[in-house]
Structure formats: structure tokens, C-alpha cells
Amino acid sequence: MADQRRASTEDREPAPGGIGLVIVDMMNALDFEGAEDLAEAALNAADAVASLRDQADAAGVPVIYVNDNDDQWHSERSRIVERCLSADSRGRELARRLEPRNDDFFVIKPRFSGFYATNLPVLLPSLGVTRLVLTGIAADICVLFTAADAHMREYGLWVPSDAIASNSAQRTGWALDIMASTMGAETRSTGDLRLNEWVEAA
């Protein structure tokens, strides 16, 4: 669920350009089978996500973490982040680069899509969000499922090609092709499109 102790929709101006930056599953201990193939690509994507987060801060765009609970059904934001930052976590550096701040929203999801059984469908309208900058891992699973649900709800999508990652470049490319061709997603990289340009294009 969104951690309302740290971030509130009250007294916020509507999201500039209707945009929200969504960061999927980047608080991740990377302790699952095949995670070693994802780790380096995820770190590279984290640099692009961090740059987008800085741009979002400058533009007044809300930042929304959407994170898996890893079947820890009693978990909450602080426990997820603490686990990812622990000394024995393969995802420690990933979490260090993108650790959520107090004003960021944090939605915990039980399955692949950020919209399934979460309060994201309620949170986004309350923030005035109609367009998503969708980032994170894995491109061909949780990012793709979240994009599909966003598309069905008629959200505009920008999925920067350098701000997502999966177990292989081939799988990432496959997911980008699907999101571009069937969901109308913009997929230019953060080097080719800046967030304030997408805000102004609204």
C-alpha cells in the first residue's frame, strides 16, 4: 500500500503535464534464480532512473515506487528497503542508488502488475496523473504487465529504453517492441527525451 505516513496527496498541485514517474521493483534484493543475469543491467538502468527522479523533483512530478512484496505478506516499506540494503543483499547497490525519500509514494504489490490488488488506481487520479513514465525491472514481466494495465486504463506511456532492464537485452527489446506497437508507448531513451519535454508535450 502507499505509505501515507511519508507522502500525502493533500495540498499537492495536480501533477505537471499529468505525469507521474513510476519506479517498478527497484527495491530488490535480487535473491531469486537468474538474478545474477539481471543485476548489471538493473544497475545501468538505475542511473537513468535516478536522473529521471532528479528531473521529476525539479518539475514537481510525483515519484511513485511500485514494489513487489516478495511473498512477505506482513511487510511494509521500511522492511522492504532495509532488507534490500542489508550487507548480504545482491541488490544492495541498486537499493542504495534509488532508496525512496520521505516524499516519495510507495505502493506494495502482490503480483506482477502495479495495478493488481493495490491502491495505485486510486492514488494516480488523486495526484492528477494521466500519463506515466514507467521504469524498473523486469522489463518483460512486471514493467510489461503494469504497462498493459495502464494502457487499458487509458494512461499515456513513456517507457524509456535505458530505464528498464531484464535478464537479457533481447528480452528487454522484445518488451519494448510490444509496448510501443500495441500500447502506443513512447520508448525513446532518457538521452533522446527529457522529462520536462514530455511535460510540455501534454
Describe the structure.
- The protein has seven helices and six strands.
- The protein has 202 residues and is of the alpha/beta class.
- It starts with 18 loop residues before the first strand and ends with a helix.
- The protein has helices at residues 35-59, 77-85, 92-98, 120-126, 139-152, 169-183, 195-200, and strands at residues 19-24, 63-68, 105-109, 131-137, 156-158, 164-165.
- It has one domain (16-200): Isochorismatase-like (Rossmann fold, 3-Layer(aba) Sandwich), CATH 3.40.50.
- α1 (35-59) runs parallel beside α3 (92-98).
- α1 links the parallel β1 and β2.
- Residues 1-5 have low confidence and may be disordered.
- Strands 1, 2, 3, 4, 5 and 6 form a six-stranded parallel beta sheet that branches.
Descriptors:
alpha/beta; globular; 202 residues; six-stranded parallel beta sheet; 41% helix; disordered N terminus; Rossmann fold; 14% strand
